[in-house]
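One thing: could you explain this record?
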Amino acid sequence: AYRKRDKPVTAKKLRAEVTRWAKKLEEVGMLPKDFQVPAVKMYPGWDKPSASVVRGKFEEKTNTLFFDPSYKEMGLTMIHELGHAMDWMADKGDFASNVPGTVQNEIVKQLRHTETSRRYWNRGSKIDDLIDPETQSDDRVLYEMRRREVFARGYAQEAAYRMENAKLIKHVEAFYQEQRRQWSSSEFEPIR
């Protein structure tokens, strides 16, 4: 779903693109008006031949969003990372999705109990309901099932629907069809 650009964008253009997505999220009620967009930087080492396939990352310690500037169509990734930033509670030193009783935590519980999540979760090596993905993050599937990752993917999917953005919805559907890393619209609807 993600293709490389002919020429990487500048850090200034990345910041402008993230700010545009944040404004759209605010318009559909998914970011508070007083939300401060974190610092935006290029992902370190993005231009090295051995660079990983990480398209984006939120670093809570520095309140910074990192992106690989060589990818096209980064909207879903940028929204996902803004979801992490919105989920982060700096005063508590934790993500709201990790805190029982928060809206974010309740959303994660529901998403984790869908058929898609159970099937995806069971693709991991030696995974069963007794393994806690919060402490077992070496495995890719376990990483993807961490509360904050489930929340950010759900946040991005909800944003695509609320914005009625055909390109974002197409990316969500592709991730569902190809990798089962998002949820079918019928599974997701009751959670919305």
